[in-house]
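During the second year of the project, the team shifted from modelling isolated chains to modelling whole assemblies. The rationale, set out in the original proposal, was that interfaces cannot be judged from single-chain predictions alone. As a representative example for this report, we include one of the complexes processed in the last quarter. Its constituent sequences, exactly as entered into the pipeline, are reproduced here:
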Amino acid sequence: MPEGHTIHRLAADHRERFGGRPVRVSSPQGKFADSAALLDGSVLETTEAHGKHLFLGFPGEEWIHIHLGLFGKVAFGDAPAPPPTDTVRLRLVNPEGYVDLRGPTTCALVTDAEKRAIHDRLGPDPLRAADDPDKAWRRISKSRTTIAALLMDQKVIAGVGNVYRAEVLFRHGIDPYRTGKDLARREWDAIWSDLAALMREGVRLNRIDTVRPEHTPEAMGRPPRVDDHGGEVYVYRRTHQPCLVCGDEIRTAGLAARNLFWCPGCQTR
DNA sequence: AGCTCATGGCGAG
DNA sequence: TCGCCCTGAGCTG
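Output from the structure prediction step:
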């Protein structure tokens, strides 16, 4: 489930459960063992998220930098912690509970300077209140790349993944193959503020819901849908199913090694 | 048991 | 653009 909302939720959950107190740090799987030993017993001072990157802050401006990638998973639990399985890259433990990290693309100890370099190469994040959408607009408005690809480019905008990409373009009636140059400023402003609202709701519910109340199955008099990813969506993984709004068949195509989903009836050039 | 696929991202060519 | 890395669920057989 790792799009930006998941990471911001993880930052809050780590802070709430482990922040401000000493934590036991270990790496049962071994790949983070040396760094875990250095941090073991120190205080988790703060946590932070930028896009899909999670940072756990320890004394001396040392940070655990975590990126879940496609497969990474985090599991919280109450004490007593069960024996870890051999895929647990990072385990934090305190008297009340534990958290296990499995399968991340990145789990590394970084300095404050290295952390700043990561922030510097990321675009603005709709979930970071101080971030400036103009920074993204400056790149988008000059680009011949499709808006679908630009939304997934973390250097342009941080935190949007394949689900939010497909859904926000649907909600604004924008054909995914339009280029950045062809996007109007007011369309970008609407996309940014919609992403901020959708992703904030994603943090709260810990899942992605994008269907407006008037289009829910109940409101439309249709049988309830079962989405295997847990949320209610318009187009994501609904290939060949009828659009909830216009009834056209949802299409899919490969774009930069990812699946793109859209409704040809609702999303125009 | 083995295959495919997944809400990511990197580096080689 | 492709191959590769990380893991696990849901198939197939």
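The first strand of chain A starts at residue 24 and ends at 26. DSSP finds eight helices and ten strands in chain A.
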